Amino acid sequence: MDYRFEISLPTSSDFRCEIAVGGEQTFQQFHDKIVETLNYDSSQMASFFTLDRMGNRVKEIALMDMTTEDEENETLVMDNTKISDIIKPGCLELEYVYDFFSNKYFKVEYAGEYIRDSSDVMPVCVACEGDIPEQFSYEDGNADWEFDKPEEEYEGDYDDSFMEEFGNGDYDDEDRQDRGGDDEYYRDERYESLDDYIDRL
């Protein structure tokens, strides 16, 4: 039997993809087809999760087994797990996590049996509509940072009050050697320690 799955976002209807997979094929093959269809980076980690009736994740189907000998091995491996081993009347919906750092995932729902064409090479993308979500999220605060931006464009982006307080911005190892390695020369007598400076702030 061939299975048809609808892949969508959990909180939006802006994207929908339909992929058919053979029951004897593995979750590794299903994963590879998702990555290929969405043009995602295949080197990144991803996992399928089965769900209970309340929508909680129960069992992970991972790219590789990351458990240690001391841990109970509840994780299945995609390459060793067939679609028909998991998709049953009591398990028709999965989650596919493709960005663990931001917990970004797709809903993967069984949408019925797929009647393949003689020319189909399974798994096959049946349909893909809408804007494909970005694979990774980036913090908005870093979005405008450019490493090759001229230094003058970053004026005011950092607080140099610490250097103003402790001064001597021209200090270097050669200067220190000229003064015989005397750290006392560079000590600001107003503060016994960095904690005193922090307390003053």
TrEMBL record:
Comp. bias regions, Basic and acidic residues: 176-188
Biased composition range(s): Acidic residues: 150-163
Coiled-coil annotated residue ranges, if any: none
Region named Disordered: 150-188
Name of one Pfam family that matches: PRiA4_ORF3
Domain Plasmid pRiA4b Orf3-like: from-to ranges: 18-134
SUPFAM superfamilies, per database record: MM3350-like (SSF159941)
Protein name: Plasmid pRiA4b Orf3-like domain-containing protein
